[in-house]
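User: Hey, quick favor. My workstation is busy. Could you predict this chain's structure for me?
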Amino acid sequence: MHDSKRVSITSCVSLLEQSSKFHFLSIGLTMSASIILLAASVFSQLSNTWFIILFLVILLGAIEVFYAIRVGFDKRLLALLVIDGVETDTLLTRLDEALTALKLLPKDKAGRDISKRLLGCIKLFKLQLGLCYLQLLVVVAAAVFAFL
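Assistant: No problem, here it is.
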């Protein structure tokens, strides 16, 4: 494997490893909203506005979990590509065959260049990050709404 490919893959893996920090934040927000929603529905009447806010936080958290799983999966697969002594192109071909057979990769995406794959991984990471930030924004907006 060329050093530039190895450095690109390693850099992408390092970036994707940061996704767990955002995932933990999202899980915390989701669990907090779930507990508040459950407690409020059991102990008191919950207004429609608060129900929608809490439901939105939970929904965004559920979607974030999907992207966190995808990012983690890609991170693990990319980490396998930088093993010493393994030819990347051969490994990518085998990986595409396995993922296609498992119906985890559409046939039209098989055979992509590593740079396109890395850009796809970074796009998924940014989507996960965006969902976490949106979830946090909803929580902050709800806190501001509560104080008004």
